[in-house]
Amino acid sequence: MTDRRSTAALLIAFTALNFVAVMVLGAAFGWPAVLDEPAAVVLPAFAAAKGPVVAGFLLQTILSVALVPIAIGLHQHFVSRASGEGPRLWPLTVAVFGILAGLTQTLGWIRWPLTVPGLAATWLDPATSPEVRTATEVSYDLLNSYAGGALGEYLGWSFQALWAVGIAVLLVRARVVSAVTAVAGLVLTAAWVLSFLVGPFYPALADGVAGTVGFTAYAAWFCWLGVVGVALLRQAPALVDAR
Questions:
Q1: What is the pLDDT of residues 21-32, one digit of tens each?
Q2: Within a domain: 211
Q3: How many domains is the chain built from?
Q4: Looking at the domain assignment, is residue 240 inside a domain?
Q5: pLDDT value at position 64?
Q6: Which of 66, 157, 223, 241 lies at 20 to 30 Å from 164 by C-alpha?
Q7: Which residues contact 195 (CB under 8 A, 6 or more apart)?
Q8: How much is the pTM?
Q9: Is-contact 189 130, C-beta < 8 A?
Q10: How confident is the model at residue 39 (pLDDT cuts 50, 70, 90)?
């Protein structure tokens, strides 16, 4: 019961604090739209609001790390709710996707509090030569493309999507939520997957109304995780533990 309640509390906190981080970064840094701006725009903006921006990204980093115990805790709960029948590989696979999502997203977020401050300081330093300033901009662009775009976002969202689909299925099997609630999670996941993961190859799915729908679905999906946390908190403990 302690593990179940701890996992539920983590899910609820994960949902609430994600919204806090997004509001802080949006207000202080214009995130996520600022990610599309060149280094000459981003680095001064980062330096101008360094305190809240670093705090917001540190919070995002911590929350991504928290996905690891959440994925493990849900796995333990799903297995403990089993009656000893059915495959055990599927819950383990889903847990691995959740862990990988947390790790890859952590590696993406951590660039902001650890690496970007140095780049911003170099770019803004009056003693910096034009050549070094240009090299700093290139370094930021490369870091943003690899750590942010490829690793933290694309891989992170891919693993998160697989985890989201997996836990929606497992939630029904473990009788944690209703089938309607689980399907809602699947629909929301599909909506933000189309925008975030398919969008780069088909811009029409990432721009305009489609992009807005994707981000709205992503925000709603976090709310869905909070609902799962509440349902898990209210659920009766398993009567039969797994072998």
A1: 999 999 999 998
A2: yes
A3: 1
A4: no
A5: 96
A6: 241
A7: 205, 206, 210, 211, 213, 214, 215, 217, 218
A8: 0.88
A9: no
A10: very high
In this prediction, residue 82 carries a pLDDT of 58
CA angle in degrees (0–180, nearest 5) for 234-74-69: 115
Does residue 70 lie within any of the structural domains?
yes
Q: What is the pLDDT of residues 98-121, one digit of tens each?
A: 999 999 999 999 999 999 999 999
Tell me what percent of the residues of the chain surpass a pLDDT of 90.
66
User: Are 113 and 39 a contacting pair, CB within 8 Å?
Assistant: no
The Cα 150–Cα 131 span in angstroms is: 27
Q: Which domain holds residue 196?
A: 2-234
| DSSP structure string for the chain | -HHHHHHHHHHHHHHHHHHHHHHHHHHHH-TTGGGGS-HHHHHHHHHHTHHHHHHHHHHHHHHHHHHHHHHHHHHHHHHHHS-S-S-SHHHHHHHHHHHHHHHHHHHHHTHHHHTHHHHHHHHH-TT--HHHHHHHHHHHHHHIIIIIIIIIIIIHHHHHHHHHHHHHHHHHHTTSS-HHHHHHHHHHHHHHHIIIIITTTSGGGTSHHHHHHHHHHHHHHHHHHHHHHHHHHHSPPPSS---
Encoded tokens for 83? 């009656």
Within a domain: 239: no
Number of residues in the chain:
243
Q: Which residue has the tokens 């909506």?
A: 191
